[in-house]
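step: validate -> pass
step: tokenize input -> pass
step: predict -> running
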Amino acid sequence: MSNLKLLNKILRLKGMKITRFWFKNRSKELHLAVKPYKNGCRCPECGRRGRIVHQTTEFRRWEDLTLMGLKVLLWYAPKEIHCPTHGRVQETIPWAPAWSRITYRLEWRICALCQIMTQKAAAEILKMPPSTLSGLLHRIITRVRDGHKIRALVTVGVDEISFLKGRKFATLVYDLDRARILWVGLGKGRQTIDRFFNECLSEGQKSRIRWASCDMSRAYTGAIKHHCPNATLVIDRFHVVKALNQAVDEVRMEQWRALDTEGRKAIKGLRWLLGMHSRSRTKGQSRFLNNLRNSNRRIHRAWVLKDEFEHIWNYSYRASAEKFLKRWMTAALRSRIPSLRQFVGTVRNHFDHIVAFTDRNLTNAVGEGLNRIVKIVKNRASGYRNLNSFADMIYLTVGDLNIPAHIPSGLRTL
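step: predict -> pass
step: emit ->
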């Protein structure tokens, strides 16, 4: 077996043939002169073979995967051909995308490594500067996602995240059925979410959305009602319970400020106990809360109302849930507790969207899980200064388009 054939076997070069090789930079770089094998002289537009009209002597260089610590570089002088359809064009390069200086399989390796580690660590493995790898990565993501369209969207979720040390916010739109992020936009107001519906979805796609979940933000609820006429909006259960817990905690803080030292000792440790779900409390803890009926009726009343509100999530019939929620709102108003009366106003504003939980147990739990991955991506890079770089890494990690899978399968690995 000749040296050229042995190199071809070791490197697993597909669709090309090695004509010669040499070493440079104190034998740290392996340079290969290659040419297409049985797939050259093809039009980049239609893929048809064309007649060679010019053989240039100007060689182009492509960087390939490292081999045993050696940087591998490919050299080839592309031909100009005449395509019956597109006229005089330069032949397509089968091992690399147009205008790229790296091969498909190096692109695949960059994407695969950056999904699971920092860009600095990936650059050390691939023997290239981190700034070079970062530029290549964002160009790959931009090229693959160029022209990408959202498809088969039925259940949408909306939430916001913070970046740049919490000084800026970004809106995330999820496909809750597939557990993927569809879109990332700067800001968290109505204008931001309107951009998604106007720029990324057609009127037909908006009409086919059947379910939506978000928090109680007027910007998100208003946009979903306006753009998705056939969607049933379900307010996220976590945000409703969080608002109720805050109302109950305000009662505790109000009583804490009004009590003397001895009275404060009697209700010490109630902050986390009041926020616990009834299934998580022990009998002793429930007994302690029931004893508040004699020592602090105001906190006891707020706790009883909070525990009763938990039953709304167990109903399976909408009419029964509406009847229960109306009775609970009446009882909360009669309690004469300002924070609970304010919570009742919030429930009244979102009454239909809270009761809609009985039609489908839809929450933003999938979105919160995706947010956890997004925070890992952010912490891995110690934060991002601009949203464009951050959004590209989100799309690479948990985006609706599998970017590494769009690199030709036969040219991905060594």
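step: describe -> The chain is about 45% helix and 20% strand.
step: cleanup -> pass
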